Amino acid sequence: MATSVKVGVVWSDLDHRLIQDGQGRLKLVENAASVMTSIDNILRTSQGERVMLPAFGGNLRAVLFENITQTMMKVLSRQVKDTIEAWDDRVAIQEVELQADPDRSTVSITIAFSIRGHGNIFEFKTSLGSTI
Length: 132
What we know:
- By secondary structure, this protein is an alpha+beta fold.
- Helix content is about 25%, strand content about 25%.
- The strands form 2 sheets. The chain has a 3-stranded antiparallel sheet, with helices on one face. The protein has a two-stranded antiparallel ribbon with strand order 1-2.
- The longest helix is centred in the middle third of the chain and has 18 residues, at about 70-85.
- The radius of gyration is 17 Å and the shape is globular.
- The N and C termini lie far apart (about 50 Å).
């Protein structure tokens, strides 16, 4: 008879919304949610913002006001994949889907990824705009 094994907390990180838990401490996210927080941090950080890691970040703000063409979308998709995999070695990107809204200077990003060593495919969605 097979038994189910519950996996404990492998990774934890601060919730990116910086909200309090029931005890007044900053809330933590665990496991897959922690990895998604890492992806969000990578995408929303511009290179040069982290003093001790100036190359860290997706540097996506730079393209928000560019003319978004199919070629630009392919380049941006590749940049998102390469940047996330470079800065979080837990993640293997399966697919990056981008949807541009040039009138609002936003790009919606959907990322399908797996966590190395685990079989599940997770989905992360975010929207980056001129106010990020």
